[in-house]
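Write out this protein's structure.
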Amino acid sequence: MNKEIKAWSELPVGMLEQIRVADKDIDDEDTKILTIAGLLANKTYREMLDLPLAETQRLIKNTAFLYEAPKKKKISSVYCLNGTSYRIMKNINDITTAQFIDYQAIAKESQERISEFLSIFFIPEGCKYNDGNYDRNKVEDDISNYLTAEEALGIADFFTLRCVRSIKRTLLLLETKMAMLKIFQRSKEAQQVEKMIKEIRYTYGLV
């Protein structure tokens, strides 16, 4: 990719992930700015240092859009990425147990690992989730390189919101069950349910 990125609508998910890593891991502000400007211009930090000052300043200006909130696009049912058609499971009730387990494993890091997170919900046409008939790594690569940040963030928010709603409903049922167990003095079972509630709250940051 040789094109300079100047807007959220042009920013691939994979580059957004790199920018977030740089923002998190680099303490020196000058180094951080040059690194991020370089990413948007397809240049290394070393290459940025070797540029004429005027050119470096121009490339730094290209980072201005990052300080504005992206316009998250409305989710579609099908996305065509790198020649592959992917369907999106919009109904949370259609998500399989395997998908939900994988979602749980990455939930707290979903903002840093967007491509991996979204690959849970992007299913190639004619396939079932992780059924062995498609390459999950290719799905991640297609999302990383061909899905824009605007599209990705909209989809990520869509699924996160619905999964959290589902989890909150589960918590409500468990809390009701725990209260009933305490009423009937079944303290050991109540403690087990209370432990489950605490683990769920910790996993999803609902403490």
